Structure formats: structure tokens, C-alpha cells
Design the sequence.
């Protein structure tokens, strides 16, 4: 296999020159062929590089809110669940009605409220309705803030970590090509 020969000066001048046509023949031939096609068909040849996205799908949905905000949402939901349990327990005791007050039932109700799906039952006492109102207001605010943050995050221009050829060389991108002799020349 014959290795490519280094050259001096500008690449365009070297590819257009007729001296030593037997050196780097394939590269020079294709450049001249593409030049003729460009003039004849009037097109613009270009190299387009798109920066790779480094985010996986889970990170995209968790990132709009910080870890502290997620922890505070969980703590607030637990506090609402406790007050919800307390108000349902008090309503069951004071009205002598058969009301479901198990933790699993209340977790399903809270999850339905946080996911904007509503609740199965409505409390009859004023205290339970206040807790329910706070739960729906809390879920509305979280939902609106999260949706707006997610949309703005998805619309943001991705960061361009790769700006030069050297950055491409130092990135963890993988390259593949057909194992042909002239491709080996290009990579050398």
C-alpha cells in the first residue's frame, strides 16, 4: 500500500496542480471530478457537522427542575397526604359515614390530583375541602412550571462542545467506513 505524500502550501492549489500527477492520484482526481460537477450542475458541496446530543430521554424530563425542587415536591406531597389522611379520618369519625381512609386509597387520590386527573371522592367537611383545594392548587402550579420549563429546555439551542477538528479528535465519537485501500489513505 502506497502512503499519501505530504504537500506544502494551500490544499486547493495542490489539488488543482498538474505537477506529479502520480502522487495522491485518487484525492486529486475526485477533487477535479467534483469541481466539474459543481460547475456543470451549479451546486454547493459542503460538510455538515451536527453536534451530538448528550442527553438521554430520562435526563431531559428530570432536568427542568433541580434536585432540590424534586425533593421539596415529594416532601410537600407527603405533607399533603398526611393532612388529607387526617381530614378524612376526622370526617369519618365525626359524620359516622363509611369513608375509605387507607393509605393506599389516599396515595391513589393524591397521585390523581398531582397528575391532573381528579379525585374519586370529594370530602364533605370544610377542612377536607381546604386540603383538597391546596392539593389541586399545588398540582396546578407544579404542572404549569414543569411544562414551561420542559418546553423552554427543549427549545434551547444545544451546547456546542465541538468547535474545531481538534475537538472532534478528542471526543468519544466513533467512526466507521468501508475497508477500501483509498479510505485507509484518507485516514492516514
Sequence:
Amino acid at each position: 500500500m502506497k502512503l499519501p505524500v505530504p504537500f506544502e502550501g494551500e490544499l486547493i492549489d495542490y489539488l488543482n496542480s498538474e505537477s506529479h500527477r502520480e502522487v495522491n492520484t485518487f484525492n486529486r482526481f475526485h477533487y477535479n471530478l467534483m469541481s466539474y460537477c459543481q460547475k456543470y450542475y451549479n451546486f454547493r458541496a459542503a460538510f455538515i457537522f451536527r453536534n451530538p446530543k448528550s442527553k438521554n430521554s430520562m435526563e431531559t424530563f428530570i432536568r427542568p427542575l433541580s434536585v432540590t425542587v424534586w425533593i421539596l415536591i415529594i416532601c410537600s406531597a407527603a405533607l399533603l397526604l398526611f393532612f388529607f389522611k387526617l381530614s378524612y379520618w376526622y370526617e369519618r369519625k365525626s359524620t359516622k359515614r363509611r369513608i375509605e381512609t387507607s393509605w393506599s386509597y389516599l396515595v391513589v387520590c393524591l397521585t390523581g390530583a398531582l397528575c391532573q386527573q381528579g379525585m374519586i371522592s370529594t370530602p364533605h367537611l370544610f377542612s377536607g375541602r381546604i386540603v383538597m383545594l391546596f392539593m389541586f392548587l399545588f398540582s396546578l402550579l407544579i404542572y404549569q412550571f414543569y411544562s414551561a420549563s420542559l418546553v423552554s429546555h427543549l427549545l434551547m439551542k444545544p451546547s456546542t462542545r465541538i468547535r474545531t477538528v481538534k475537538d472532534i479528535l478528542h471526543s468519544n465519537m466513533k467512526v466507521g467506513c468501508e475497508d477500501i485501500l483509498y479510505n485507509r489513505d484518507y485516514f492516514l
